[in-house]
């Protein structure tokens, strides 16, 4: 292993390659001398994406000027199926970030055993500074700019930070119009400006984007899938760890993932005693009621004072604490579900939870990972714990391709099967090789990807 690979940096792609190096070292111990050249070749191939698309998106602004936005689509690996991964709008998007995220998507899809590879996209933009019309024109322009490189069998984008089902609706509409414009018109439609696709063909093209609204061909259960998948992973992991009984939990973040996680944890009998958002955290020792807390937060605009337990919100039932304090509470389960790099070498020695379930992407720094491992605190890694989202995205793609619409019960049943099986595979790899679960998740993913690269 090259020493430079082990240097810890803030560059996400360097960190991703460090994770690859650690897993590759484990895999080298499992192969024969004859198999080694193939393994080395595959590891070398995974050290860079297969394709990087750089796009410029001109947008007519409301004031009559034209602004050019820079964007990317990185197609990392498609050995197991079409590239899959979200599109991020953020002013700090960089090529290295998109490369890292696309690598992690390849790993996540392989851990969940989905017939998909890994990709990711992004535009350097602060979407909050755009009007609704500018946002739509930019999204449609980006979809057109990447249209030749995506498709049901090529690359299937989805929402990520600051993108959502509405934006996916604009993009899929633009993509379908673009594809129609390339079909030679049928004789009877010549001169009408219309090119025909059958409903089935159009639904197939819709599968190019997932995370769509139901009315645009989206799947039941997608919004809750990441949280529900996280619960299935946690329950499976706790059984393997031999931990049972009534347990307490805290959740950092109260957005899509954090709220749903808190809701499913409470529903499954965990006592969620603290949650937080960017403005701070609340501690409710009796256990929060997530639904009432969300209603209260929507009404007030913040969590402080939303001490909702049982069927009431009452100022005497809780108190405000900081986000830092939340991470160090003495609980059974700590769920970071907001941002990256929140568990660091500074606070990892003070974490008192028995298990960390990473629902955000990259919440634990490599230093903190080492500290928690040495302290015997299992960290269930993001590429396993939050893979429920992409799993239901894959179900959406499959439903569109087959012209089907599954019920929520069916989606959740299939989700559970995938999550239980993925958790078992990671757990077994961790025990077999005596390695942390993060490296075990990479080993599991790489083994599957390399088998497909043969
Ligand atoms: P979101 O924007 O809906 O919610 C983010 C939450 O984090 C908000 O409540 C916000 O107030 C809170 N937050 C922001 N800064 C914070 C801080 N400093 N301290 C505490 N809380 C803070 O986003 P989301 O979709 O819930 O995603 C959360 C994380 O999960 C991200 O890392 C994302 O990449 C990851 N993830 C999301 C999905 C999904 O399906 N949405 C799937 C996989 C992974």
What report would you give on this structure?
There is one protein chain. With 454 residues, the protein is of the alpha/beta class. It has 3 domains: 1-47 and 434-454, no CATH class; 50-186 and 193-209, Leucine Dehydrogenase, chain A, domain 1 (Rossmann fold), CATH 3.40.50; 226-385, 3-Layer(aba) Sandwich (Rossmann fold), CATH 3.40.50.720. The protein is built from 15 helices and 14 strands. The strands form 3 sheets. A 7-stranded mixed β-sheet has the order 11-8-7-6-12-13-14. Strands 1-2-4-3-5 form a 5-stranded mixed β-sheet, sandwiched between helices. Strands 9-10 form a two-stranded antiparallel ribbon. It starts with 11 loop residues before the first helix and ends with a helix. The chain binds nicotinamide-adenine-dinucleotide (NAD).
What topology does this entry show?
Blueprint: H1 12-28, H2 36-45, E1 51-60, E2 66-77, E3 83-90, H3 95-111, E4 118-124, H4 132-146, E5 155-159, H5 165-181, H6 199-206, H7 222-241, E6 248-252, H8 256-267, E7 271-277, E8 280-283, H9 290-300, E9 308-309, E10 312-313, E11 319-321, H10 323-327, E12 333-336, E13 355-357, H11 366-374, E14 379-380, H12 382-385, H13 388-402, H14 408-433, H15 437-453
Parallel strand pairs: 3-4, 3-5, 6-7, 6-12, 12-13, 13-14
Antiparallel strand pairs: 1-2, 2-4, 7-8, 8-11, 9-10
The structure holds nicotinamide-adenine-dinucleotide.
GO molecular function: glutamate dehydrogenase (NAD+) activity; nucleotide binding
Protein name: Glutamate dehydrogenase
Active site: 120 (proton donor)
């Amino acid at each position: 292993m090259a020493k430079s690979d082990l240097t810890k940096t803030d560059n996400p792609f360097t960190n991703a390659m460090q994770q690859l190096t650690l897993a590759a070292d484990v895999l080298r111990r499992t192969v024969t001398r004859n198999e080694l050249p193939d393994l080395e070749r595959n590891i070398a191939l995974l050290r860079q994406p297969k394709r990087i698309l750089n796009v410029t998106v001109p947008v007519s602004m409301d004031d009559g000027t034209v602004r050019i936005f820079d964007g990317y689509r990185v197609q990392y690996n498609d050995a197991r199926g079409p590239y899959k991964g979200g599109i991020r709008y953020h002013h700090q998007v960089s090529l290295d970030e998109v490369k890292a995220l696309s690598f992690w998507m390849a790993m996540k899809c392989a851990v969940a055993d989905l017939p998909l590879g890994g990709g990711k996209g992004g535009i350097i933009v602060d979407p909050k500074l755009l009007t609704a019309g500018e946002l739509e024109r930019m999204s449609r322009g980006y979809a057109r700019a990447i249209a030749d490189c995506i498709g049901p069998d090529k690359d299937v984008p989805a929402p990520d930070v600051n993108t959502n089902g509405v934006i996916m609706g604009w993009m899929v509409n633009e993509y379908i119009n673009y594809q129609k414009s390339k079909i030679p018109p049928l004789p009877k439609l010549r001169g009408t400006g219309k090119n025909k696709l059958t409903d089935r063909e159009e639904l197939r093209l819709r599968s190019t984007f997932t995370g769509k609204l139901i009315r645009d061909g989206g799947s039941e259960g997608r919004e809750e899938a990441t949280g529900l998948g996280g619960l299935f992973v946690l329950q499976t992991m706790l059984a393997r760890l031999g931990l049972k009984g009534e347990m307490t939990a805290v959740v950092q973040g109260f957005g899509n993932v954090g709220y749903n996680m808190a809701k499913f944890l409470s529903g499954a009998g965990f006592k969620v005693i603290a949650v937080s958002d960017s403005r701070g955290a609340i501690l409710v020792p009796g256990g929060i009621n997530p639904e009432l807390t969300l209603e209260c937060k929507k009404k007030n605009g913040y969590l402080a004072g939303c001490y909702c337990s049982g069927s009431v919100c009452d100022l005497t039932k809780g108190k405000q604490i900081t986000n830092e304090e939340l991470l160090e509470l003495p609980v059974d389960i700590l769920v970071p579900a907001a941002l990256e790099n929140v568990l660091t070498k500074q606070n990892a020695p003070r974490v008192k939870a028995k298990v960390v379930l990473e629902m955000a992407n990259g919440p634990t720094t490599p230093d903190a990972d080492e500290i928690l491992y040495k302290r015997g605190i299992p960290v269930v890694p993001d590429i396993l714990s939050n893979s429920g989202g992409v799993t239901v995205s894959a179900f959406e793609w499959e439903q569109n391709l087959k012209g089907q619409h599954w019920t929520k019960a069916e989606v959740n049943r299939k989700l559970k099967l995938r999550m239980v099986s993925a958790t078992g595979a990671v757990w077994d790899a961790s025990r077999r090789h005596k390695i942390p679960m993060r490296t075990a998740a990479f080993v599991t993913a790489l083994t599957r990807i390399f088998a497909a690269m043969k």
